[in-house]
């Protein structure tokens, strides 16, 4: 399901490149918007019982939940803005370390759920073809005890930002099993 969710996110992002260009140029997070777009997309593709900001069985809230093929999934979604300098994107400082820490916190929270949880995050802006961000993917995997790789756990969506410049949004997803066992799942999609 993590791979399917990632493909849904990629498709939503690809259909909204002009909107995302504004967000990426300014390093502005778009999690709230993406949550609702993803909820609609999930319903259109067979998910039932789709809810945004759903109360979990532990009293906390997941960003999105739904049933698919008879199984319930709780999703934690993050949009993490980077501080990488690049042409066409506003130069400013962003707390990437705090953003990455929040992904780890979400993964740990999902471990407490009775069913399967999926962590999904978008890391942006990233230079097209650049691999510097992989250190953050490795950090997340290490802190959650999950083996994550660029090839198996991520996709990229390229967005034109300004004056012929482009930036990538890296989309990553992985399953976090209830009862403390985490299993990773994902893929890479190019422009």
Oligomer: single chain
Order of helices and strands: HHHEEEHEHHEEE
Mean pLDDT comes to 90
Query: How many discrete domains?
Result: 1
Q: Assign the structural class, choosing from mainly alpha, mainly beta, alpha/beta, alpha+beta, or little secondary structure.
A: alpha+beta
Task: Count all strands and give the number.
Answer: 7
Largest sheet: 7 strands, mixed
Q: Tell me the strand percentage band.
A: 25-35%
Helical run tally: 6
Low-confidence stretches: 179-191
The coarse silhouette is: globular
Q: Helical content, roughly?
A: 25-40%
Distance between the termini: 22 Å
How much is the radius of gyration in Å? 16 Å
List keywords for this structure.
191 residues; alpha+beta; 6 helices; 32% strand
List the helices and strands and how they pair.
Layout (H helix, E strand, L loop, with lengths): L1 H13 L2 H10 L4 H14 L3 E8 L5 E8 L2 E11 L14 H16 L4 E11 L7 H11 L5 H4 E9 L2 E13 L4 E2 L8
Structure description:
- The structure is a single chain.
- With 191 residues, the chain is α+β, with helices and mostly antiparallel strands.
- It has one domain (2-183).
- It has helices spanning 2-14, 17-26, 31-44, 96-111, 134-144, 150-153, and strands spanning 48-55, 61-68, 71-81, 116-126, 154-162, 165-177, 182-183.
- Strands 1, 2, 3, 4, 5, 6 and 7 form a seven-stranded mixed sheet that branches.
- The longest helix has 16 residues, at 96-111.
- The radius of gyration is 16 Å and the shape is globular.
- The model is unreliable at 179-191 (pLDDT under 50).
């Amino acid at each position: 399901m993590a791979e399917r969710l990632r493909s849904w996110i990629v498709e939503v992002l690809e259909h909204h490149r002009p909107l995302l260009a504004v967000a990426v140029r300014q390093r502005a997070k778009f999690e709230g918007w993406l949550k609702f777009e993803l909820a609609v997309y999930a319903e259109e593709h067979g998910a039932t019982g789709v809810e945004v900001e759903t109360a979990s069985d532990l009293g906390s809230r997941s960003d999105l939940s739904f049933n698919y093929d008879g199984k319930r999934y709780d999703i934690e979604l993050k949009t993490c803005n980077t501080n990488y300098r690049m042409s066409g994107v506003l130069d400013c400082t962003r707390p990437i370390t705090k953003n990455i820490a929040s992904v780890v916190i979400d993964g740990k929270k999902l471990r407490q759920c009775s069913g399967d949880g999926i962590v999904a995050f978008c890391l942006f802006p990233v230079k097209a073809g650049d691999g510097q961000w992989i250190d953050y993917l490795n950090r997340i995997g290490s802190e959650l005890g999950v083996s994550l790789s660029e090839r198996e756990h991520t996709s990229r969506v390229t967005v034109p930002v300004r004056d012929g410049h482009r930036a990538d949004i890296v989309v990553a997803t992985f399953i976090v099993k209830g009862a403390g066992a985490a299993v990773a799942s994902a893929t890479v999609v190019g422009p």
